[in-house]
Amino acid sequence: MFGFLIGAAALGYAGYAAYSPRSQLYGRTYLGAGRGSRQLALTYDDGPNDPHTLRLLEVLARHGVRATFFMIGRFVAEKPEIAREVARAGHVIGNHTFNHPNLIFCSARRVRSELEQCRKVLTDTVGEHSALWRPPFGARLPHVLGVGRKLGLEPVMWTVSSNDWKIYTADGIERRVAGRVRGGDIILMHDGSHVRMGADRARTVEATDRLIRRFKGKGYEFVTVAEMMRSVVGLRSPVVG
């Protein structure tokens, strides 16, 4: 019985580690500058999304902030002009696969196809872009991270989740993020939805404005993930294209 309980606990932890953004059990992922840093990196998943990605760009431009966008390839193909606007504004663009599947349940061949298809459409649309990538749902196993590294991609997770996909007010999103920031954080938000184009992210746009005002007022600096990486001696952010 004791052996069974140990096995069940180990299995439970293995499953938890496949989704936990901070876990390094299945391979190294980038988790920010570390506590004590005065840098924060805003990251947005699941775009480009019409019209909220463009509205988000307006907010970021108003504050002089650059962010990191992990884009879904099929949406880039659908709305290439929005992806190009993100690039023209100086934001960092990363790979979030072509179709946004849960990669834990994909073969290594499928993982490679998802990443390569997304990389191709990004290159065709915006040209040179970062080699940063984020697994959908944060889900990864050794073969998932292994394929990414063979393609020269750097996996990026997060330390603060806004939960903006299920919190339905800008005030609620702001409170959640503000209560978890400790410095050096990568903040996960969403400018789109993996389910469909046109998802309503107005509350995320508003919460972004509030968070920038709040943390700039406290002396924090907003940077891209690539800039955060470069601030660490010996660590560079690769590019592809």
Description:
With 241 residues, this protein is α/β, with parallel strands linked by helices. It has a single domain, classed as TIM Barrel (Alpha-Beta Barrel). The chain is 43% helix and 15% strand. The protein contains nine helices and ten strands. Strands 1, 2, 3, 7, 8 and 9 form a six-stranded parallel β-sheet that branches. The protein has a two-stranded antiparallel ribbon with strand order 4-10. Strands 5-6 form a two-stranded parallel sheet. Helix 5 packs across helix 6. It starts with a helix and ends with a strand. The N terminus is likely disordered.
Features:
single chain; 241 residues; alpha/beta; TIM Barrel; 6-stranded parallel sheet; two-stranded antiparallel ribbon; 9 helices; 10 strands; globular; disordered N terminus
Could you provide a short overview of the structure?
The protein is an alpha/beta fold and 241 residues long. The protein has helices spanning 2-19, 52-63, 73-78, 80-88, 108-126, 142-150, 170-178, 202-217, 225-230; strands at residues 39-47, 68-71, 92-95, 129-130, 132-133, 154-155, 160-161, 185-190, 221-222, 239-240.
Describe the secondary-structure layout.
Blueprint: H1 2-19, E1 39-47, H2 52-63, E2 68-71, H3 73-78, H4 80-88, E3 92-95, H5 108-126, E4 129-130, E5 132-133, H6 142-150, E6 154-155, E7 160-161, H7 170-178, E8 185-190, H8 202-217, E9 221-222, H9 225-230, E10 239-240
Parallel strand pairs: 1-2, 1-8, 1-9, 2-3, 5-6, 7-8
Antiparallel strand pairs: 4-10
